[in-house]
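Today's session is about reading a structure prediction critically. Students often jump straight to the picture, but the first step is always the sequence itself: look for stretches that repeat, for charged clusters, for runs of hydrophobic residues. Only then move on to the predicted structure, which in these notes is written as discrete structure tokens rather than atom positions. Here is the chain we will use throughout the hour.
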Amino acid sequence: MSIIIEPKSDERHLVMGNEAIARGALEAGVAVVAGYPGTPSSEIVESLASVSKERNLYVEWSTNEKVAMEVAAAGSFANLRSLCVLKQNGVNVASDFFLHLAGSGTRGGMVILPCEDPGALSSVNEGDSRHFSRMLEIPLLEPGDFQEAKDMTKWGFELSETLKCPVLVRSVTRLSHASGTVTFGDLPTTEQQATFKHDGFVLDPETGPVISAPVNYKHGLQQQKVQQAMEMFEASPFNTYSGPDNPELIIITSSACNLYSREAIKQLGLRDRVGILKLGTTWPLPPRLLEKHLRTTNKVLIVEEVIPFLEESVKILGMELAEEIGIKKFYGKRDGSIPSTGELNPDIIIVALCNILEMDYVGLPAEYEEKAVTHLFLGAPAREGTFCAGCPHRASFWNISLALKMDNNEGFVCGDIGCYTMAVRSAGFSTLKTLHAMGSGTGVASGFGKLGQFGMDQPVFSVCGDSTFYHAVMPALVNAVHHKSDITLVVLDNSGTAMTGFQPHPGTETDVRGEEAVQMDIESICKSIGATVFTADPFDFKTTQETLHNLMKMKGGVKVLVLRQICALSPEKKGTRWFDMSVTESKCLGESCGCNRLCTRVFSCPGLVWDPVKKVSKIDDVICIGCGVCSDVCPVGAIDKKELT
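Below is the predicted structure for this chain, in token form.
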């Protein structure tokens, strides 16, 4: 049994932050859950899917985040409590519908839960979705520890039903993916009944049609809800203060930065000099609470990650209250006390506090730090991110890169987000030349493919993964076909959403609950749109490269090549080997070969290593998964493969 449906309340459990969020949703009586995979958010949906039958939930991985929010909204409109889970980029994808949803309002409690990635630990950006709360005029909650991750999620549903609007509950990587002890509450025992009432007066929020118009009424209603939230936030138990009554400095913070700030004050021994006002309700700010604490000090340090969202809001409030509380000295991102990029940690806050309070602090002895840098960091070999052993993407980009070089017409590839993003660097032979959002590779390529009238005759390719194809590439492909753009789309189909944990998508046979689903076929979809479609196995170098060369000869219109090979780490493939691989040392010329160690220096599969003593390549049997591809890479045939039965 999953820990998140432990029936006993008032007991403490060690859980991941995302599991705490999932438990909070269960305690709130969530019925409908929808999302799109994205680190660090994925475990929330997966945790709830694992208990969906026991708790009678509807859970799905949607085609993209906009659809996920629409599915969750349908549950709310039918008076069910619903949850939409995404990461920071996903809020942007869903923002079109999100703007309308804020205007139309909701019925059953609805929580939008983005998990963000300060420092871009597993992302290509560190986007900040907090500004959506201000732009859309909806409440924003930010848990400051693991207990609050559960409790605040649960309260978010209650707040949503009180205000009849969606509520944004924001987590970050260090909260979602770390673990802590959490005291569970009770799970509801009553079943919810879905009913969508729609025949009432157009302005009746309970029985009328759910629309964002008329704007002159609905927008004013949104702002009334914000004022109501502000009043409720004044007494929220999620806003806490710890420290002296008249501190020399107050830290105003939220989210995981609360934990960093507490650690910094402890390390510096500043509990009698510095207070912490931890805000769980970060928009709209509770003005009377802020006024109370701003009166007690003249120095204020705002500690938050990414953009100075909280800092700017506090400063605006401080200026409005200046006549009552006096002029304050604010420190934060604007003056450089706190970095404007990357995730924070206690050391960064310690430095800021020491600068503000004119303190000296030595964390590590100088000799220890010097030894660590000299003997550990500088001595460690450099290791760039790379594809796994046996990854079909390495073979795909090897084929694409070779085909473009042999064509010698300055062809290039437009890419987007997935494991294959690494192809912008040496792992993928520096094949990608543009890199933006999911689906943008094909959208950008569509534009390049229409520049022939300006003299461009370079072959234009785009690549996408199978999950990304359904998520965002289909509209771009329609656009390219409709406008007769001269491009080739290569779909890297590895049979799952590999980057985030092999979650199902419309091209798989089952859904997130393991139940049978209608499987979409990429080739059929592309053909129905009007593209010319080919399929190949990227491990078959000869066929794949011949196909790529033929595609570059076909001028005009959209071509699609589906390179299909299952991910080496997928549950279906993991642990299986196709070939027993070995190196014939007498054939391997290594550095004296014209290839100059092509296999280990350029192709660089982790399963291939260089023996510096024997001066030959060898197979690492622990890492090698026996895909057999490297035997086609070696120009002298020194790598042998023996088929396993």
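Discussion point for the tutorial: DSSP finds 22 helices and 25 strands in the chain.
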